Amino acid sequence: MGKTLLPVALAILCTPFLAAAEVPIRLHPANPQYFLYKSKPLVLITSGEHYGSVLNLNFDYVTYLDELKRHGLNLTRTFSGTYREAAVDPHGKTPLSPGRGPENFIAPWALSNVDGGYDGKKYDLDRWNPAYFQRLKDFLRRAEERGVIVELVLFCRMYTDENHWKVSPLHPDNNLQGEAWRGLSYRRFMTLDSKELVERQRAFVRKIVSELRDVPNVYFEVANEPASGRHDSAFAKDVHAWHEAIIDEIVSAEAALPPESRHMIAYNDHYAPGPGIGPIPRPQSVHILNGHYLWKMEDLLAEAGKGRAVAFDETRWIAHPRFGEYGNTMKPASGRVEAWEFMMGGGAVYSNLNFAYQPGNERGASPESDEFKQYMRNLKEFLTSFDFVRMRPDRGVLAGGLPAGSTGRALGEPGRQYAIYIHHSKAARGRNYYEPNEEPRTLNLELDLPAGSYRVEWVRPTDLAVLGSQTLTRYPGGKVKLAASPEHHADIALRIRSR
User: Fold this and answer.
1) In whole angstroms, what is the distance from residue 289 CA to residue 277 CA?
2) Are residues 284 and 404 located together in one domain of the fold?
3) What is the pTM of this model?
């Protein structure tokens, strides 16, 4: 929402968020691999902006949310304002780099009359900014009206001193109270090193959780990409302890609410792949396990079906304006095969990062962006064409015929319904995304199915066209070779239902 709409939002928000508090989105009690919202099972699939919808006053979030709804996308991530970026890193100018001053950036804390700091006046961490919370609630309300869930990211790792930590309202130069943690390295922002800083972080968590207690379409991610390297390092243990303190604060802030009224908490494991997911802080309180980029896919899917949802929470970038010089971005077909594989492997959330969305282009209009958003609509429509809450990862239904260099994933409810996805890709060397092989091919698959009668459909993921079908009538059970698949290119899906 642009600055000119703020007075309207303030008037609207004189009334409660909702006439009666609704139950927030939560894990589905019958299958916590997925979500329950408004009494319906839910998966979350999106191609969203670079996290500045609320904090960037020049970003028209109403137009942005309308665009998500138009494509059937139902999730957005947004950062809380404890972290922002200067427009000098490889990302360039994005919604998360709003520019200096209160005409561009809105923070949770009020500005003082004391000159200095990145925004011209220093923040007073003893005073909250009512306009910030009004804008946040308006964003959430408008998202709710459009069927969009919001992942609110409370904190983020300070990647560099100059371009991230020094522009944060919590940097000592930018507020009245920060002398107590002057000298703290930006690398230690999310540790317990400074009890004074930690108390400010805790106070912010208490405030924001309290403000949003009646909002149904939000969940809290503790921190974005909190640490890298090995999850058993000394630094990782320090970050783990900090996470425990923040999760405790969220839980405490909602302790008086009935269990069904408490919001979900997401934790981002951003450690090096290979050893698997590291220790989860306060695992009994973490509902969603987040990971970023292709190299975490196997670790994440290994956790599917273990009592919490798994989320591919950030991807390599679609429609990056500097693709030619900053090659760690992916084409729409690369994102399509990644998204379909993850969701057909048991994922609950796929959140693509789309750089086409900018102030002045809140619809994210570009050929690559528009193509990819259609792919995400197709994925969501395919998955929700099943009674998916009854399905779980099925590693046995694909019994043979998968060529070398191809990958298959499947969801199934034994004897009733199966969703299978196969793609022919390789991981781009050092790039954290797939390079699909577009050569035409057919498949001669062997499936392992229980006794019964089935209809098998071959579906093209690019447009959901049914390319071919066959019927298995009074099949006795066990392994069966299907008729040759239709010719296809990078990927193909199967929809199998009992008859």
Assistant:
1) 9
2) no
3) 0.94
